[in-house]
Amino acid sequence: MLYLACLVACLPVTAPMQLVPSTTVLPPSQTPTATTVWFPPTATFTPLPTVTLSITPTLDTRPHFGSLMFQDDFTQPENWTLGKMSAGSIAPGKNELSLGVSQPPGYLYSLRRNTTLDDFYIEITASPSICRDKDEYGLLLRVSPNSDFFRFGLNCAGEARLDRYLAGEASSPKPPAPNGVVPPGAPSCSRLGVWAVGRDFRFYVNDIFLFSIRDASLPAGGLGIYVRAAGLDAVTVNFSDLKV
Asked: What residue segments make up the domains of the chain, in order of their start?
């Protein structure tokens, strides 16, 4: 027993075992995980190209004219063709000339005597007192000795038109078309205007531009007014305050 005790006492002291943590290598993930970018880079600012607007100038359609050539307040009715015709009568009034168709359908016109115009701007007031639908009234321009002419007219349906009568044939450079500045019906009042220089014409109602044409067929001629009854009713239109 003494021997065993001495043997145990003489054995070397062994330090206690320490556990070392093992590192386990995980297999790589089959789906890579995206890395969160907390502060993404800002795109470089690229200025937009500068756009330069090209403004097209508005066509100046206002009439340009010189000094007054003459005016007519219709106090001298002998300057116009007057009288009674089969369709009606042309008679002077108070500062106006009245054209009345009493036998419709019919057509009346009156020419200003000793008047020849080439380049001009003309205005006249037309006041229909009895008028409806396609009944028509207006100006005769550059009337030739052969009865060629341009005819600028309005009707009581609110339309404007331009006709040409040349060498016995009639045509319509501007067929009847509705226009908001043309008053329909009667009684009403319109200021007709025509600017003519050479072959260029511009047409106005109440200082509003309607349309233009180019036509060199009649370079000069006389001046007149007209009324046409399109239906079976009488038509009366008074003309006043002519300026050229």
From this structure: 71-243
3-state secondary structure of 10: helix
The tokens describing 206, both together, are 């109440």
What secondary structure does DSSP assign to 112-141, as a single string? BTT--BSSEEEEEEEEEEE--TT-EEEEEE
Structure tokens at 231: 């239906």
CATH topology of domain 71-243: Jelly Rolls (2.60.120)
Structure tokens at 21: 């943590």
Q: Which tokens belong to 144?
A: 């030739």
| CA proximity to 218, closest of 155, 162, 160 | 162
Q: No. of H helices and E strands in the chain?
A: 1, 15
Distance separating alpha carbons of residues 117 and 99, to the nearest angstrom = 23
Distance in angstroms (rounded) separating the CA atoms of residues 64 and 154: 23
Is cis: bond before 105, omega within 30 of 0? yes
pLDDT tens, residue by residue, 106-130: 999 999 999 999 999 999 999 999 9
Please check the confidence at residue 174 and state whether its pLDDT lies above 50.
yes
For residue 77, the 8-state DSSP code is G
pLDDT digits (tens, 9 = 90+) for 128-155: 999 999 999 999 999 999 999 999 999 9
Query: For strand 96-101 and strand 200-205, is the pairing parallel, antiparallel, or unpaired?
Result: unpaired
The pTM score is 0.75
Task: Identify the three-state secondary structure at position 175.
Answer: strand
For 192, what's the count of Cα atoms within 13 Å in the CB-facing half-sphere?
27
Amino acid at 53: L
Rounded to an integer, the average pLDDT of 175-182 is 95
